[in-house]
Amino acid sequence: MSDKIKSTNKKKKNKKLNRLIYNIILVLLICVFLGCAIYLIKYFMESKKSEDTVDELKDMVVAEEEMDDVVFDSNYEEVVIATETDAGVEEIKYINFNGTYVQKKYAMLYKKNQDFVGWIKINDTDIDYPVMQSMYEEEFYIYRDYDKNPSNAGTLFVDTSCSVRDSDNVLIYGHNMHTGKMFHDLLEYEDEEFYEDHKTFTFNTIHEDAEYEVIAAFRTNIYPVDYTGFKYYQFFDASTEEQFMDYVKNCVSMTPYTIENDVEYGDKLLTLSTCAYHTENGRFVVVAKKIED
Questions:
Q1: Are 100 and 205 in contact (CB under 8 A)?
Q2: What DSSP line would sit under 39-85, residue for residue?
Q3: Which region, left, alpha or beta, applies to residue 281 given φ > 0 means left and ψ of -120 to 50 means alpha?
Q4: What are the structural domain ranges in the chain?
Q5: For a Cys-Cys bond, which of 9, 183, 224, 239 suits 174, CB 3.0-4.6 Å?
């Protein structure tokens, strides 16, 4: 066989091999594309399902003007508790769930799932959600919805180390969803102008309604166990005034703009935490103090 024929055959083989490699790569790329597309479709569909669930839960909250017309399950006692405020005596209706007194407006939510502890809302954002707390598994709701079904969006939840009623600092976690849902809008507080227009928000619990004033907003990390610096996620109750004020000073110092505040030892704090992607294990945190009547 002549060298010319050998060369031609070799070129044909190489051409076939190159075409085969090209086709394999093309198939792989198509599979990757389809996989990503399926994942994204599933991700957005689950997010939509999660938001639909939240809308249904909102409908279960009893409006103030409807309170007197709603008759709750007769198996549970209705109690009216009077509290003195600067504005006078305030009467709040509760439902007694075997010793746990739940505001009547949230009674249907609590009956549906007794891990429900409150509702948080920040105006002009998508943050308008129920908040859960599983005392047996801290991250139980990280990938579960209100009904405990699997969900990429999860549900906002409180750290098991604190009590929404008694702790000096209540820590709430939530996902930073690419759809803009859950705690994604917390990052708006990086903008000082946004902060100026949204200094306060509400976190109403099963026990009481409350308004909070933002005192800090910053980026930080989840650090290794042996790290000895400031870890915002380890403070819940202060044994001394110095410990309490040290937490406040650290949070304020990490905020990229100046926030004037009058936080004092004895104030109740609320810390909101979500993922941020400026570094590995990055977090964005908003800290607020309860505004007393």
A1: no
A2: HHHHHHHHHHHHHHHHHHHHTTSPPGGGGGG----TTSEEEEEEEEE
A3: left
A4: 1-59, 63-112, 113-290
A5: 183
